[in-house]
Amino acid sequence: MTRQLHLNAFLMTTGHHEASWRLPESDPYAHVRLEHYVRLARAAERGTFDSLFLADGPQLWNSVAQRPAGALEPLTLLTALATATEHIGLIATASTSYNSPYNLARKFASLDIISGGRAGWNIVTTAGAEAARNFGLDAEPAHAERYARAAEFLDVALKLWDSWEDDTILADKAAGVWGDDAKIHPPGHRGTYFSVEGALNVPRTPQGYPLLVQAGSSEDGKAFAARYAEAVFTAQQTLADAQAFYADLKSRTAQAGRDPEHIKVLPGIVPVLGSTEAEARANEQVLEDHIVHEHGVAHLERLLQLPTGTLELDAQVPADLPSEDAVEGAKSRYTLVVGLARRERLTVRQLIGRLGGGRGHLTFAGTPEQVADAIETWFTQGAADGFNIMPPVLPSGLDAFVDHVVPLLRARGLLRTEYGPRQTLRERYGLPRPANQYVRTPAPAPALV
Amino acid sequence: MTRQLHLNAFLMTTGHHEASWRLPESDPYAHVRLEHYVRLARAAERGTFDSLFLADGPQLWNSVAQRPAGALEPLTLLTALATATEHIGLIATASTSYNSPYNLARKFASLDIISGGRAGWNIVTTAGAEAARNFGLDAEPAHAERYARAAEFLDVALKLWDSWEDDTILADKAAGVWGDDAKIHPPGHRGTYFSVEGALNVPRTPQGYPLLVQAGSSEDGKAFAARYAEAVFTAQQTLADAQAFYADLKSRTAQAGRDPEHIKVLPGIVPVLGSTEAEARANEQVLEDHIVHEHGVAHLERLLQLPTGTLELDAQVPADLPSEDAVEGAKSRYTLVVGLARRERLTVRQLIGRLGGGRGHLTFAGTPEQVADAIETWFTQGAADGFNIMPPVLPSGLDAFVDHVVPLLRARGLLRTEYGPRQTLRERYGLPRPANQYVRTPAPAPALV
Description:
Two copies of one chain form a homodimer.
Chain A: E1 6-11, H1 34-46, E2 51-54, H2 74-82, E3 89-95, H3 101-114, E4 119-124, H4 129-132, H5 143-161, E5 169-172, E6 177-179, E7 189-190, E8 195-196, E9 211-214, H6 219-228, E10 231-234, H7 239-255, E11 264-273, H8 277-289, H9 293-303, H10 331-343, H11 348-358, E12 362-366, H12 368-380, E13 386-389, H13 396-411, H14 425-428
Parallel strand pairs in A: 1-2, 1-13, 2-3, 3-4, 4-9, 9-10, 10-11, 11-12, 11-13
Antiparallel strand pairs in A: 5-6, 7-8
Helix pairs in contact in A: 2-3, 3-5, 5-6, 6-7, 9-11, 12-13
GO molecular function, one term (chains A, B): oxidoreductase activity
Pfam family, one (chains A, B): Bac_luciferase
InterPro entries (chains A, B): Diverse_substr_monoxygenases, Luciferase-like_dom, Luciferase-like_sf, NTA_MOA
């Protein structure tokens, strides 16, 4: 069989384009309507996607004027979606900076059990002072410190998920012995950021632990991904950049002693579809025309860490911006945005238009054939193992992708035509079930870490 | 209409009796099977219960040998149950000692939205060093400190739930204005235990915030309940004790400036049913015969804070136990158990038998008529506003209660015969929707706090 493409549906209220909520078709209350997300999840399942995904941050963005703000907590929403779907993987973002390992490991274990092995965790360290100030801190922790904490968080979480051997439960009613205490392994962890003594209070789950996903592309982020991640979401603007990122990450993963096949790279793409290229461009223009530029300027100033009022709409982005090293926030996104503005000599207005669709992810306007061609090129030219599909408008953009692009990908043999038997999320991504680190006897499947 | 009884189904794996899992009918894997809980939730809905409830603690109890251990995280499980039910309230236990207000407030807000206003929070401070050691502490925080933190936690959570006014969302597509920033109220909280700057990233929910439930009966617990709780679960062994507790809590609530009708008192009852009293007693004996006494001794020694090996199975409980004041754990449960042992001059074996069913809650073995009589007596004699129904074996014990006791309560006019129109959990309990503390204009409903 041809190497298979992995597709993830990145769901976001009324769509990834910041102005999508203003379209006549959009429901401005979609962000709190379960039925909206159920409809999206079922559309993605109709398209035999591997998984769906919810981004998140534990703070309210600065203004609710601009676009739908606030969102159902991802693990809660995905639990509800688990009961409304059968096959698709369910990936939730959660922060290592603003959670405790015991609680978070337990929630993901619970979702993995309830969904029959379909849970995934997009591991984020959460940039920004707004989030920090909601959790007792005065300022954002330094970038390197956030990643050091994330690594220790993962080590603890992996110990907790392994703290029950798979065959702990004996269920011996006659003898009155329910479980085997010898197969419980309390972490007894004492580290820099965490002390966690006891075993998890959930048995080992169908997948062992959730699929581990990561999306930071800074140096720290790539080092972390090479060590832990099984799937990586990334924003890449050109084929060459995507190829370089792909090769770099696979190489780092091999250097970390892991099989490079066991990390799947999924760039984001915002497909703006039309029956002709001209129609697609017109659809893109409609969205751009709905952008409120004053919001865009304020957002860009925050991203570039500039004082309010610095940017002028019809001037170019200032030339004297600091390098990524001096930035404590979302480092790789910063570099991408500055690079895009300089490479294409964009005015602030043009840059806002380019970012409005996907916040730095590749926006691709075209016919279904052109989108399928772009996907196939990146997939076959060493730039991607699959894609993070980010429809500009929801639900219509996901329906359009499923109805018009998915059949082409299937016809080319790149994507499954049906799910077949039930599989775990990790099985869908072609990854083995991780062995338990506490089991000393030869394990049936190789360990991932 | 006659004053109406409130019923809550307290769900626990294979049942509240510690030996229930050993019965032939019991599924020893019930604790991780969603379908088991869906079945229970639907049975409770068939019985037109007000709510169902899951207890919890963030630790694995000492031994998995004794009985099913570990459990799906309650908020996760209740989210899945929200999609499988239509009317019943969903009450999850969560700890103020081992959560952060921002994350927990958001999760409950999400559940309240997804369930259409059916979320409840059983607020616990979590006794025990095992839990503390899973969250970076070496020992359990002192009882009074746990309650001081809980009070500040509630104040912050209430600010977060009120941080969006009900009419924040404008959805003005033409003007490009989604929400009104003037109706967002960041808590800006700086306290002893928490600093939380920003507004919640979830809009105000159908109920405003989840029904607030509390179950501690210590002095600190009762003071906390009088200030915040809208429903109270309590363990009472005699009518006289229950009447005294009821009167005390209503009086404290009035002294705190609240309407005593706005706090509902629900003692726990473990109904062991039989078609005759003799059959009910025989059913109780079957359960008691399945207790493994060595586990019971170890459990009792921990509860009474005695060294291992102190208790002898056929001797009485030692007379020289310390008073509740000297105990840092579950204070009121300690007093109840010591009082029960002394009042009835029980041996350790007998005490274990009495506690095996409900861990201190009232076990009542009898015919459906006798159980209905007991419930009616407590309800009409100033001891209860309703009951926390704790079936000894699940699902059969809940089915039996719904099929045989509920019809009697309905025939006596004490319990609704159908749900009628959809209501929030707070409406089911006859409580008003809380006003938003940040709204200065006259509110349609009186504030609770």
